[in-house]
Every structure is written in structure tokens, then in C-alpha cells.
């Protein structure tokens, strides 16, 4: 074997080692990326765990929410109680939240119990009037006034 052949063989061997290292680095990078995506997916999945369909409350509903003219203010407390202030007059109620359905049971028998379909917005809540309401299907936007 001549010296030129030995040098050529040595260069080919070094090139093969470089390719192998490059493949290994690419494989490890892909594995790392897959692990990060898997962890991110698990975190996102777990974030939704607290918002199960059967859960009686969602912490996003706790606090006070008012219509833009402040004539109507709903307050929802963690213990499931609440209050509707309509033109300053207070009306107490109990509420449950099942999925997207907000059920309100007023203490005063003179007021009809009702249901709303609820949607969370950046600024508060959007309620769609449902069973027991006078204006079924109408949407009301309530802005958060306090947590």
C-alpha cells in the first residue's frame, strides 16, 4: 500500500466518522424536540383537567361581572352563591356550572330560575339566554369588574 492510498483511506475514515457524528447529533436533536413537544402536550392536556364537564364550578367565573352600563352586575362566589344587582337592587342566588351551562337558582321565589350558555372572553363573560329566561337566544356581554 502506497502512502497516497493510506492518506486517502485515512481521509475516508475521518469523513465517515464525521457523517456518523452528524447523524447522531441530528437523531439526538430530533429526540429532544419530540420530548419537548410531548411534555408541552401533556402540560396543555393537564391544564384542561380542572375544567371537566361535570365540575360544579370553573374558577374563571368567580368575581363580579357587569354590563357596560353597570345596570346589571352578577357576582359569583367560590361557595356557589351569588348575587344579581339589577338597578341597585340585590337578588341572591345559588349557581352551578356544568360544561357550558350556567344554572342560576334565585332565593326569591318571585324570580324564575334560569340557565345560560356561558363563554369566556378576554374581558369577562358572554351569556346566551336559555331555559327560564324571557329572551331565549339573546347574548349578553358582561365585563369583569373584580376578581
What labels describe this entry?
1 helix, 31% helix
What report would you give on this structure?
With 147 residues, the protein is of the alpha+beta class. The chain is 31% helix and 35% strand. The chain is built from one helix and eight strands. It has one helix at 3-47, and strands at 63-66, 72-76, 81-86, 89-98, 101-106, 114-120, 124-129, 139-146. It has an eight-stranded antiparallel β-barrel with strand order 1-2-3-4-5-6-7-8.
Structural class: alpha+beta
Poorly predicted runs: 50-56
Strand order of the main beta sheet, please? Answer: 1-2-3-4-5-6-7-8
**Helix percentage:** 25-40%
Short description:
The protein has one helix at residues 3-47, and strands at 63-66, 72-76, 81-86, 89-98, 101-106, 114-120, 124-129, 139-146. It is an alpha+beta fold and 147 residues long.
Write the layout of secondary structure elements.
Elements: H1 3-47, E1 63-66, E2 72-76, E3 81-86, E4 89-98, E5 101-106, E6 114-120, E7 124-129, E8 139-146
Antiparallel strand pairs: 1-2, 1-8, 2-3, 3-4, 4-5, 5-6, 6-7, 7-8
Amino acid at each position: 500500500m502506497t502512502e497516497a492510498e493510506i492518506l486517502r483511506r485515512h481521509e475516508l475514515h475521518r469523513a465517515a466518522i464525521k457523517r456518523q457524528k452528524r447523524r447522531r447529533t441530528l437523531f439526538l436533536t430530533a429526540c429532544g424536540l419530540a420530548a419537548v413537544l410531548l411534555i408541552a402536550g401533556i402540560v396543555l392536556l393537564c391544564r384542561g383537567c380542572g375544567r371537566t364537564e361535570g365540575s360544579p364550578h370553573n374558577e374563571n367565573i368567580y368575581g363580579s361581572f357587569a354590563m357596560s352600563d353597570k345596570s346589571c352586575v352578577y357576582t359569583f362566589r367560590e361557595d356557589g352563591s351569588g348575587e344579581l344587582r339589577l338597578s341597585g337592587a340585590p337578588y341572591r342566588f345559588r349557581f352551578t356550572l356544568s360544561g357550558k351551562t350556567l344554572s342560576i337558582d334565585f332565593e326569591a321565589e318571585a324570580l324564575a330560575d334560569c340557565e345560560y350558555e356561558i363563554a369566556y372572553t378576554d374581558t369577562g363573560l358572554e351569556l346566551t339566554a336559555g331555559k327560564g329566561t324571557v329572551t331565549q337566544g339573546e347574548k349578553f356581554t358582561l365585563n369583569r369588574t373584580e376578581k
